[in-house]
Amino acid sequence: MLRGMYGAAAGMIAQQQRQEMLTNNIANANTPGFKAEQASLRSFPNMLIHAMGTNSVPRGQAPAIGTLTTGVYLQERMPNFRQGDLMETGNNTDIALLQGVMPPTESGRPGALFYTVQNENGELRYSRNGNFTIDGQGFLITTDGHYALDTAGEPIQVDNEEFQINDAGLIIGEGGAAIAQLNVAYAEDPLQLVKEGSGLLRFEGEGELPTAIGNDAITYQLQQGFLERSNVDAAQTMTEMMSAYRSFEANQRILQAYDQSMEKAVNEIGRIG
Predict the structure, then answer these.
(1) How close are the terminal C-alpha atoms of the chain, in Å?
(2) Which of 245, 235, 239 is nearest to 16 (CA)?
(3) Alpha-carbon distance 71 to 254, whole Å?
(4) Where are the transmembrane segments (predicted)?
């Protein structure tokens, strides 16, 4: 009975964590460049049950009754790096990154492209949010104040919004002079990137991601005046939230049933005789 209670409780915890993930997805349905997360649920190892009271049976030959499941848990949360739709804004500082052909990878998963930015501690981070703006010193920054970086890893100073950027990411000033090359980094395995909040991703591998600039095996396009939408499917996410809620309720009812049985065992069975 106690094993059943533990299994139901494990199911409730897993569905609660899944619900929190889905709630975060739906809350960021309008965040530019946001990548929805997916949950992977996994069951704990099953237990093989054998018959009791079989001392006369040779060891290891007791008849098996069957297996007993021991619950599930949320194994991992993985971002889905599928390309989001583009939305035209007309703002010069909005830049959408449109992925094209990606080279084949060992894992079989497609690679992904990212902007390189600098966080408040001066550390290198990656982002798909092209909703940039200009700070008081003329630097191109994200809306959260993180510097956009060029191929040399330096912040990009454009002075004002009157700049143009071509498909390859070359930024051109008012006089037609090249200012900088907006860096685009390539992640062969995007699952090595971990979300940090504010649209930033941290690379968990060694060193830093290589640039996609000059890599003939990678094609991409930068669109000025556009933003990449979140790739959250709101309708599907709402359906999954309802499914997680119902699964949570089902496990809750099972747990309540076990609790009532335990209450009877403690308060009533002891009175018999």
Answers:
(1) 24
(2) 245
(3) 13
(4) none
DSSP string, the chain: -HHHHHHHHHHHHHHHHHHHHHHHHHHTTTSTT---EEEEEEEPPPEEEE-SS-TTSPTT-SPEEEEE---EEEEEEEE--PPPPEEE---TTBEEEEE------SSSS--EEEEEEE-TTS-EEEE---BEEE-TTSBEEETTSPEEBBTTS-B-B-SSS--EE-TT-EEE-TTS-EEEEB-EEEESSGGGEEEEETTEEEE-SSS-PPB-TT-TT--EEEEETEEEPP---HHHHHHHHHHHHHHHHHHHHHHHHHHHHHHHHHHTGGG--
Reported pTM: 0.81
Q: Name beta bridge partners: 86.
A: 228
How many whole angstroms separate alpha carbon 156 and alpha carbon 150?
A: 6
Residue indicated by tokens 């309708």: 235
pLDDT means per 10 residues in the chain (273 residues)? Answer: 77 92 95 92 66 56 61 85 94 94 83 95 94 95 94 94 93 90 95 90 93 93 96 95 94 87 74 58
Give the per-residue pLDDT at 49: 60
**Phi and psi torsions of 40, nearest 5°:** -120, 110
Q: Are 142 and 148 in contact (CB under 8 A)?
A: yes
CA–CA distance, 4 with 59 (Å, rounded to integer) = 28
Phi, psi of 68 (to 5 degrees): -125, 120
What is the structure's pLDDT at 260? Answer: 83
Q: How many CB atoms lie within 10 A of CB 92?
A: 17
**pLDDT given at position 163:** 93
**What does residue 211 show for φ and ψ, rounded to 5 degrees?**
-80, 150
Integer Cα distance of 55 and 219 in angstroms: 70
